[in-house]
Design brief:
By secondary structure, the chain is of the alpha+beta class. The chain contains 25 helices and 33 strands. The protein is 40% helix and 23% strand. Bound molecules: ligand BES and zinc ion. Zinc ion is lined by residues 297, 301, 320, 323.
């Protein structure tokens, strides 16, 4: 696939036409759908004679301009565009075209999830529904009529408010009107035989909003947590940002086949059912939290994304970075600030830092892309959110609010750029952000070297940014960022707390009046998304005493990393780490937070500091430390387990959740011992469990310690839950993540399981996707792991390119691997890229990795 074309930000041109309004009529049938598309168009650039509409693989039936049926000499239809020659300055177009949603396995545009018709149009799916100016800076008022069989599709949904409906005998129609101009990527429709739950919300200004959540019949009782979360999000956005909802109705539909998590279509969100459906029996505590945050995220887009949208797709972080920051703050406000912050930083480092150090690294505002679908990345999302967070820190709560108010007032109803956002931030606050802009344009994780000096009662902190000479052929410049620090005295009292503004390549900060050298607590709350390089720090002291929840956690992580690295060099376990860890076990306070403190660094975190990576060696060292800690603290861990284990309790309150978190952490650590006692505890936990959280942890422990018990319990689990695909995802994930011998064979065999379906993204992710992140077996020295995943990528690429390019991500660490693994990976990567008709999605990722 050599004709893959890159799109460049520098080539952006404003649209030559505007579409005032668009009237769509969908006639849905079992084999195809007919789309009638009537648009009122105006020429904006009078110098332009022809109108070029986006389209993808469309069958055109009729074409009218101003009520005149066009002969095919007036237009040219190609695979990707429809050009109409000699158009007047104001005109209307009517197009009738035919599409085949039933055959759409890419899950973009109009497709079927089971028996439900639904859509996914971001970023460029709308062009496979009907010809259009399918770009986010063309905003139009949409009216949608859906016509379908009354019995098969009693529920017909569109964007905006419901206008009218007609009974047409065997069929019926419903018309929806959305008064807010919007880009085509926010268009949605749904038709199906759906169950639902309803509620209402009264906005701060007293408007009544009807809330509905739709799902497959029979799942209604699993929608209540999503509904509660929606109302929490609506209230939060009013209180924190002064933003109210703006339509009479808010609909959410849960579907099983969905490429992503969820989509913010105006007034009609469409969700992967994994982010809607939950009850105590089938969903884990993490699932409940995930639902709350994704529901909020899509709701928040109503202002940050929909009313103010992106000028072009290079601006994606304008809506996604900002909205992720908003959902992170929401979750922190509703749950725990410090737990939320640590979880967010963990995810940033595991996904985004890895990406930023890989051949697919890009700035949060990329300069070019081949497939836009590939740019919904951890960088655009999570680093983008960190960038907004830094602005928030630099401005402070009050000025930040003043600035977002200005942003909403100034740009409501427009398609704008990240520059416009920064303008609002700086002009409302008076804070100069010109040096800050670099965060949008430079890729790579900044490193900061920290040197401390203490002389004559003066403490000097010298910070030096380690700036690579060039990245992507450009010289790199130093960043501007807020760095929260504290200096602690020997009693861990905060003598100094400050937010330093770091902006130079190297600079020193002086603090006076100390008798003894203070202890540095740096990058508190992870105020900047950087890597701190420090020769020495008093990790044990910070682990025990730091008053900042994040730094305390960080100290434990770094100390553990250094301990594991020493084990890899052949040293014994550092007794000072062991001692400090023991101290954590005795901590009082929030148990969820404590569970995080006790977690050892992930293999992904460990590998980031290495080159010539060999996973076997990392695993072995981490195992050794786990066993050491489990052995040393067996009694304490058992006591923690027993105190917090409450069989029969399925409470969903914060305390119950945190008790499960800590006792399951204790169980996981203890499982390194693989003793009969611990295995029996896990078995008992499975048998007595009333929550999915407890069940899954027990299964995971058994799977990795006792093959016989594992087989029996997994069979029990399977027979109980085989009808619930969302639960079966967990079953597949446990097996695909297993460390046991024969995991690859079992994964291969599971593809033939009655529940497995290669067309359903969730199932592919939980079996193949999880296996591709099973470092032990994916990177196996016989190369079979690589070969299997490559085979799958090639196969799935033909069904759903977006899903295939997601799987390609597993190969991103190619250039950091040891020679042996690298050469085996190369064989597979070359095989993928030489595949006939490989999608541009997979081509873009693999070609970058191989470069
Ligand atoms: N707008 C996106 C959904 C999307 C992503 C559509 C990529 C098309 C291509 C949505 O707002 C989103 O960001 N969803 C996330 C979940 C969110 C909580 C970060 C997702 O789907 O992963
Ligand atoms: Zn989003």
């Amino acid at each position: 696939m050599s004709e893959a074309q890159a799109i460049y930000l520098k080539d952006y041109k404003a649209p030559a036409f505007s579409i005032e309004d668009v009237n769509l009529r969908f006639e849905l049938f079992e084999e195809y759908a007919l789309v009638t598309n009537v648009m009122n168009i105006q020429k904006v650039d009078t110098g332009v004679q022809e109108l070029s509409l986006h389209c993808r693989d469309l069958e055109l039936l009729e074409f009218w301009i101003n009520d005149l049926k066009l002969q095919d000499t007036r237009y040219v239809l190609e695979e990707e565009k429809l050009t109409i020659l000699n158009v007047p300055s104001v005109f209307s177009i009517k197009i009738i075209n035919k599409i085949y949603p039933q055959n759409n396995t890419e899950l973009e545009g109009l497709y079927k999830s089971g028996s439900i018709f639904c859509t996914q149009n971001e970023p460029e799916g709308f062009r496979s529904i009907t010809p259009y100016l399918d770009r986010p800076d063309v905003m139009s008022v949409f009216t949608t009529t859906i016509v379908a069989d009354k019995e098969k599709y009693p529920v017909l949904l569109g964007n905006g408010n419901k206008k009218e409906s007609f009974d047409l005998g065997k069929r019926h129609s419903v018309t929806w009107h959305d008064p807010h101009p919007k880009p085509s990527y926010l268009f949605a429709l749904v038709a199906g035989d759906l169950g639902s739950i309803s509620d209402e919300y009264i906005t701060a200004s007293g408007e009544n909003v009807e809330l509905n959540i739709y799902c497959d019949l029979g799942n209604e009782s699993k929608c209540h947590h999503a509904m509660k979360s929606l109302k929490e999000a609506m209230l939060w956005d009013e209180e924190k940002y002064g933003r109210e909802y703006d339509l009479e109705i808010y609909n959410i539909v849960a579907v099983d086949s969905f490429n992503m998590g969820a989509m913010e279509n105006k007034g009609l969100n469409i969700f992967n059912s994994a982010y809607v459906l939950a009850d105590e029996d089938s969903a884990s505590d993490a699932n409940f939290m995930g639902i709350q945050s994704v529901i909020a995220h899509e709701y928040f887009h109503n202002w940050t994304g929909n009313r103010i949208t992106c000028r072009d797709w290079f601006q994606l972080t304008l809506k996604e970075g900002l909205t992720v920051f908003r959902d992170q703050c929401f979750s922190a406000d509703l749950n725990s600030q410090e737990v939320q912050r640590i979880e967010d930083v963990k995810s940033l480092r595991e996904r985004q830092f890895v990406e930023d150090a890989s051949p697919t690294a890009h700035p949060i505002q990329p300069k070019s892309y081949i497939s836009m679908n590939n740019f919904y990345t951890a960088t655009v999302y999570e680093k983008g959110a960190e960038v907004i967070r830094m602005i928030h820190t630099l401005l402070g709560e009050e000025l930040y609010r003043k600035a977002t108010d200005l942003y909403f007032e100034t740009f409501d109803g427009q398609a704008v750029t990240t520059k416009d956002f920064l303008w609002a931030m700086s002009s409302a606050s008076g804070v100069d952000l010109s040096a800050f802009e670099l965060w949008y344009h430079q890729s790579g994780t900044p490193k900061l070297k920290v040197e401390e000096k203490f002389e004559n009662g003066v403490y000097t902190l010298t910070l030096t940014q380690v700036i690579p000479n060039t990245v992507e052929g450009r010289a790199q410049k130093p960043y501007f960022f807020p760095l929260k620090i504290a200096l602690l005295d020997e009693d861990a009292k905060e003598v100094v707390t400050e937010t330093l503004k770091v902006s130079k390549e190297s600079e020193s900060f002086h603090f006076e009046g100390f008798n003894l050298k203070p202890v540095l607590s740096i990058n508190r709350d992870f105020s900047a998304p950087i890597i701190i390089e420090q020769e020495y720090n008093n990790f044990a002291f910070l682990m025990k005493h730091d008053t900042n929840g994040f730094v305390k956690y960080e100290a434990a992580q770094i100390f553990a990393i250094e301990t594991i690295e020493a084990i890899m060099r052949g040293e014994e376990v550092n007794p000072r780490f062991s001692e400090a860890y023991g101290h954590l076990l005795d901590l009082e306070g929030d148990l969820s937070y404590k569970a995080l403190l006790l977690e050892l660094p992930t293999v992904s975190t460990l590998m980031q500091r290495m080159s010539d990576i060999d996973f076997d060696v990392i695993y072995e060292a981490k195992e050794k430390l786990s066993q050491h800690l489990a052995q040393n603290f067996q009694e304490k861990l058992l006591a923690i387990y027993e105190v917090n284990h409450e069989p029969g309790s399925f409470g969903m309150d914060a305390l119950a959740i945190s008790k499960r978190a800590i006792k399951n952490r204790a169980l996981k650590i203890l499982s390194a011992l693989e003793t009969r006692d611990v295995i029996e505890i896990a078995k008992r936990q499975y048998e007595e469990s009333v929550t999915m959280t407890d069940r899954v942890v027990a299964l995971d422990v058994l799977e990795n310690t006792d093959p016989e018990y594992a087989e029996v319990t997994l069979a029990d689990f399977y027979s109980k839950y085989k009808k619930q695909t969302l639960v079966m995802n967990k079953y597949f994930s446990i097996l695909a993540a297993s460390h046991r011998e024969g995991t690859l064979d079992r994964v291969m065999a599971l593809q033939n399981d009655a529940v497995y379906d290669e067309k359903v993204p969730n199932l592919v992710r939980s079996l193949i996707g999880v296996f591709a992140r099973n470092y032990k077996h994916f990177h196996a020295k016989n190369g079979y792991g690589y070969k299997f995943v490559a085979d799958k990528i090639i196969e799935i690429d033909k069904i759903n390119p977006q899903m295939a390019s997601g799987l390609c991500g597993a190969f991103k660490i190619y250039n950091k691997m040891n020679e042996k693994n690298k050469s085996m990976m190369k064989v597979e990567l070359s095989r993928i890229i030489s595949t006939h008709e490989l999608s541009k999605n997979s081509f873009e990722i693999i070609s970058k990795i191989l470069k």
